[in-house]
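in:
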């Protein structure tokens, strides 16, 4: 349960949190409720996507801490500026909020865009349902078919989906509170089913999947996974048509030891599968991951390495993943629409036979 009172403005609430920093340490639930707040639909927001962040008086890790915000707190995002690079990090980006500065890598850019209800489920080749994108900072999930199955749910006291995640919806109901709820039923997961407030979900439409330059035959994605570079570019007949920053595989563990298998595999690859949404799982016990609703996935390596949307960090330009190429949600969607072959919303997933689809050229330079 999150606490929020409409008697106070967001600025008043944040000031209260800062003033009572000790209470925050004991009661981390004192954060803004993104599902019931009074955010403007045109306002840019930031969701804390790490365990906690400090609000600093200046864009510097050494500046005075004005308070602490915990994961899933939501703040007004005034502007992004260049500040001091914290030790061991690579980004110099900070976000100015009404009450101080937060290191940008720990804030997911989000908006609050509630949606109307789709009361007639479309028919598809596998039954009724549609793909939808989360368009509010987060939405709480209510388990519909316990017990929990997915590893990510085991330790989740309050399971949620987050802004930009893409998921399959296949039913609806009116809750005891009078609100409309959609049933979230992953197409490619562990079998967990949830109910969630319908206003959080925007159904994908034809424009979301409209192919970009499908007539161009000579397409190539070039990825520079060099630690100091970290970018991706899309080429048509060797002419650049798209560029974005990435977070490729990080090849060092917590002890600073090199682990080559964690890097994005260099070489020339071909896309072999594309999926509107994927449940990603992998790694080892204690060092693995399990993430539902990963949008706009373009797999290009037999080991499951992919270019995909990312909502759990905002640290592009820094190697962070376990092999995949993390990009911003809007960048992932563009790349998904541009790479070949085309994917239709029904079924929303395609496995590509040899010789494969668009060429993916990964390079890494040392020294």
């Amino acid at each position: 349960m999150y606490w929020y009172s409409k008697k106070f403005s967001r600025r008043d609430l944040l000031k209260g949190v800062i003033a009572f920093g000790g209470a925050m340490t004991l009661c981390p639930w004192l954060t803004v409720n993104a599902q019931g707040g009074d955010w403007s639909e045109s306002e840019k927001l930031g969701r804390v996507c790490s365990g906690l962040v400090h609000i600093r008086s200046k864009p510097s890790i050494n500046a005075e801490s004005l308070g602490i915000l915990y994961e899933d707190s939501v703040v007004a995002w005034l502007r992004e500026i260049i500040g001091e690079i914290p030790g061991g990090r690579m980004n110099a980006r900070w976000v100015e909020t009404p009450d101080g500065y937060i290191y940008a890598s720990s804030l997911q850019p989000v908006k609050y865009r509630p949606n109307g209800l789709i009361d007639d489920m479309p028919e598809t080749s596998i039954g009724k349902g549609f793909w939808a994108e989360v368009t509010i900072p987060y939405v709480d999930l209510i388990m519909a078919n316990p017990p929990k199955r997915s590893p990510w749910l085991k330790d989740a006291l309050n399971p949620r989906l987050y802004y930009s995640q893409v998921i399959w919806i296949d039913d609806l109901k009116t809750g005891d509170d009078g609100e409309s709820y959609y049933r979230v039923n992953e197409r490619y997961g562990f079998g967990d089913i949830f109910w969630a407030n319908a206003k959080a979900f925007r159904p994908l439409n034809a424009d979301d999947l409209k192919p970009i330059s499908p007539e161009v035959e000579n397409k190539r994605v070039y990825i520079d996974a060099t630690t100091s570079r970290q970018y991706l570019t899309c080429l048509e007949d060797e002419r650049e048509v798209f560029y974005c920053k990435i977070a490729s595989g990080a090849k060092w563990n917590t002890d600073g030891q090199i682990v080559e298998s964690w890097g994005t595999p260099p070489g020339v690859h071909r896309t072999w599968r594309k999926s509107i949404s994927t449940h990603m799982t992998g790694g080892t016990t204690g060092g693995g991951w399990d993430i539902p609703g990963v949008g706009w996935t373009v797999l290009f390596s037999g080991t499951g390495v992919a270019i995909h949307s990312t909502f759990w960090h905002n640290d592009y330009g820094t190697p962070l993943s376990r092999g995949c190429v993390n990009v911003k949600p809007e960048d992932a969607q563009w790349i998904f629409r541009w790479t070949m072959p085309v994917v239709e919303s029904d079924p929303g997933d395609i496995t590509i036979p040899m010789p494969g689809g668009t060429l993916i050229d990964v390079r890494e330079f040392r020294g």
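note: The first helix runs from residue 10 to 19.
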